[in-house]
Design goal:
Bound molecules: (S)-3-Hydroxyhexanoyl-CoA
Main location: other
Number of helices: 29
Family: Belongs to the enoyl-CoA hydratase/isomerase family.
Pathway: Lipid metabolism; fatty acid beta-oxidation
InterPro entries: 3-OHacyl-CoA_DH_NAD-bd, 3HC_DH_C, 6-PGluconate_DH-like_C_sf, ClpP/crotonase-like_dom_sf, Enoyl-CoA_hyd/isom_CS, Enoyl-CoA_hydra/iso, NAD(P)-bd_dom_sf
Oligomer: single chain
Helix content: 40-55%
Catalytic activity: a (3S)-3-hydroxyacyl-CoA + NAD(+) = a 3-oxoacyl-CoA + NADH + H(+)
Structural class: alpha/beta
Number of strands: 20
Largest sheet: 8 strands, mixed
CATH class of the largest domain: Alpha Beta
Strand order of the largest sheet: 13-12-11-14-15-16-17-18
Number of domains: 4
Length: 708
């Protein structure tokens, strides 16, 4: 939890309504308390308790006002997402419960700490007032689950908050800190002292005022605020790129449009209809799957959850290139001091300047203030001497991807680092065990593979070597959470999970253009599928020359080789698969088209037209096959880890759930048949699961086999 505050509530006379809810009435105020760990989600029992509690409070002659609060780490964090596919039909529905809360004739107050999210905030909006701890956050993050706020949030928020702010809150799903929420009108007061005492006092005060409380549905402050007639059209246009492919943001825009144009009940009907469409769709299924998949990644079958991590308070980074600087920033951002070490003065100065200018750009965009910038820079020290790594708890090597160099660096770190320090490599392909072998402490060596830009991409591949100690793995997983990364555990192999998964996609793309489609058609199909960039545009960005081309041995036998020989190395030469103008805008290259046609003619393969769907299948099927191999070889723990790695590390469109989810969705027998039809051999695991009528997600080896 972001703020770590816990509400411990055990007032006298608390009476359990059921296992997760309790009721008390003291000094004229009824208290309804939810205590349903971990996050007080609105499961069946919570709904039952809320219904009973509010009904009782309404009829309790001793109660003149009502407070709703939660025990533990947070206020209600939303509907119980686990119930979406297994609804508790015996329990009252959320809407019915909220109707009862909203109809309470006595002033009702939601006392918010932690995070009031989704259905949690919607419940609070059915109270007459909302008070919160200053550290609380409120939000409607349903969009991240491919949904819209479906319990009145789209209709109630715009009644008290300005339409554009309401729209942004729902369409981006970002929680709002308490102070801002108060300024927006979502909260009525911040309570500096004990939240519960303050909320009870606030409620009693409202009861004593005597005026009838007003329901949010009947309020009009938000609606009364002027908003320009073009708001919705402009919002759609301005965010078209961010929302591309996703169905939920458009549904949210429509629901908020309904809120500002229709009477409340009609707006609610519109919300219900749009919510119903979203929850029945594949996008939401995929995104809900990813929500749990991300949390599943931290579960390592042979590693007890209580394995104590090693303390990490000071970090060393070796190498101040793009990766090293990005990694350093990741730790600085999370409040950890970093010593950044380089061999050459000039390279170190470049790294330092890159970090500063990156922070300055963030400041200029308003993401951080000058004080934060300075604090982060103050936490950074630079050095040309590896001896300055002697005191750190974790060293991350981020030098050039070359085994001899990495081994040399590790031998030096081994001689310098204190006993018990964790030695990590950021290698993206190389054999971690061979790197660990040059040290006298292989159990302390681990792979921490960041994705570029390291301070932005959420994925951290944690590579477990044959001898890596369990507490070192536990430390890496705990560290990932501190630096706000999603950790996915991999065993050692060439490319680990994410890079190894992307290689077959590139190979398939290069093979496909010999059968008819042009590179830009392939790219367009992949963009349609949801990638920001197609594989050929990606090659141009990375540089064709750096992907294994050598002028000395070039044999003109592939299109890439010929392009390299002609100096078409990609964006940096303003020519690759595409031609580029001065602003690096790409246009299909007639020269490349001619070259591809020549190769097509000599390939002997019958040319045929491909639909976008067929192109996508041709590129994704080998990726799925590779994923199954990763499971078969024990490199990845589970199919969902692979999906998380690609969504968080390679911009795989989240609304597809990732390649493994996609494959299970299509059905493995179909995947196997399609692979065979394109001349690929499905791996043994894929064939077995298909013939057993099973799915990739059902494959659980239970324990990662050691590839020692
Ligand atoms: C909704 O409300 C729809 C309504 O509009 C309409 C209805 C009609 N349900 O993230 P953590 C579990 S949609 C079930 O590691 P943190 C989570 O799986 C919902 N389970 O903790 C994990 O379990 P485990 C809108 C949930 O401290 C454990 O709690 N709300 C739910 O880093 C701890 O989670 C959201 O989308 C849930 N709603 O972060 C909020 N939430 O230990 C989703 C969590 O077995 N939740 N769990 O792995 C979050 O954003 C974060 O969990 C939160 C805590 C910020 C609350």
């Amino acid at each position: 939890m972001a703020n770590g505050e816990r509400l411990e509530v055990r007032p006298d006379g608390l009476e359990q309504l059921n296992q997760v809810t309790a009721y008390a009435c003291r000094d004229e105020v009824a208290l309804i308390l939810i205590d349903s760990p971990p996050v007080n989600a609105l499961g069946g029992d919570v709904r039952r308790g809320l219904l009973e509690g509010f009904t009782r409070a309404a009829n309790d002659p001793a109660a003149r006002a009502v407070v709703l609060a939660c025990a533990g780490r947070t206020f209600i964090a939303g509907a119980d997402i686990r119930e979406f596919d297994h609804p508790d039909l015996d329990a009252p529905g959320l809407h019915a419960v909220l109707d009862v809360i909203e109809a309470c004739p006595k002033p009702t107050v939601a006392a918010i700490h932690g995070t009031a999210l989704g259905g949690g905030l919607e419940t609070a909006l059915c109270c007459h007032y909302r008070v919160a701890s200053p550290s609380a956050q409120v939000g409607l993050p349903e969009v991240a689950l491919g949904l819209l706020p479906g319990a009145g949030g789209t209709q109630r928020v715009p009644r008290i908050v300005e339409a554009e702010a309401a729209l942004a809150m729902m369409a981006f799903g970002k929680p709002v800190p308490a102070a801002r929420a108060e300024a927006m009108g979502l909260l009525d007061a911040l309570i500096e002292e004990n939240l519960l005492d303050g909320a009870i006092r606030f409620a009693r005060g409202k009861a004593h005022e005597g005026s009838a409380p007003v329901r949010v549905r009947d309020r009009t402050e938000g609606l009364a605020l002027p908003h320009d007639a073009q708001l919705f059209a402009r919002f759609r246009r301005d965010n078209a790129r961010a929302f591309k492919g996703y169905t939920a943001p458009e549904a949210i825009v429509r629901a908020v449009e309904a809120a500002v144009t229709l009477p409340f009940e009609q707006g609610m009907q519109r919300e219900a209809q749009l919510y119903g469409e979203l929850i029945a769709g594949r996008q939401s299924a995929a995104m809900r799957y990813l929500f749990f998949a991300e949390r599943q990644c931290t579960r390592i079958p042979d590693l007890p959850r209580d394995t104590p991590p090693r303390p990490i308070a000071h970090v060393g980074v070796v190498g101040a290139g793009t990766m090293g600087s990005g990694i350093a920033m990741t730790f600085l951002d999370a409040g950890l001091p970093v010593v950044l070490v380089e061999r050459e003065e000039e390279a170190l100065a470049r790294g330092l300047a890159a970090i500063r200018s990156n922070y300055e750009a963030s400041r200029d965009k308003g993401r951080i203030d000058q004080a934060t910038l300075e604090q982060r820079m103050d936490r950074l020290t630079t050095s040309l001497d590896m001896a300055d790594l002697a005191e750190v708890d974790l060293v991350i090597e981020a030098v050039f991807e070359n085994m001899a160099l990495k081994q040399e660096v590790f031998a030096k770190i081994d001689a310098i680092a204190r006993p018990g320090a964790i030695l990590a490599s950021n290698t993206s392909f190389l054999d971690l065990d061979a790197i660990a072998a040059v040290t006298a402490r292989a159990p302390d060596v681990i792979g921490l593979h960041f994705f570029s830009p390291a301070n932005v991409m959420r994925l951290l591949e944690v590579v477990r070597g044959a001898k890596t100690g369990p507490d070192v793995v536990a430390s890496a997983m705990a560290l990932a959470r501190r630096i706000r990364k999603v950790a996915v555990l991999a065993r050692v192999c060439d490319g680990f999970i994410a890079n190894r998964m992307m290689t077959p996609r590139m190979d398939a793309a290069r093979a496909l253009i010999l059968e008819g489609p042009m590179p830009w058609e392939v790219d367009a199909a992949m963009r349609d599928y949801g990638f920001a960039m197609g594989p050929f545009a990606m090659l141009d960005l990375v540089g064709l020359d750096v992907i294994g081309w050598d002028a000395a041995t070039s044999s003109s036998s592939t299109i890439t080789e010929v392009l390299c020989e002609r100096g078409r190395w990609g964006q940096k030469r303003r020519a690759g698969f595409y031609d580029y103008d001065d602003k690096r805008r790409a246009t299909p290259s007639p020269q490349v088209e001619t070259l591809v046609r020549e190769f097509q003619q000599t390939s002997g393969i019958a040319m045929q037209p491909f639909s976008h769907e067929e192109i996508v299948e041709r590129l994704l099927l080998p990726v799925v096959n590779e994923g199954a191999r990763l499971l078969e070889e024990g490199i990845a723990l589970r199919a969902s880890d692979i999906d998380v790695a690609l969504v968080t590390g390679y911009g795989w469109p989240a609304y597809t759930g990732g390649p493994m989810f996609w494959a299970d969705d299509h059905g493995l027998p179909r995947i196997v048949a399609a692979l065979e039809a394109m001349g690929e051999t499905p791996c043994a695991l894929l064939s077995r699961l298909a013939s057993e009528g099973s799915a990739l997600h059902e494959f659980a080896p239970g324990k990662i086999p050691s590839n020692a």
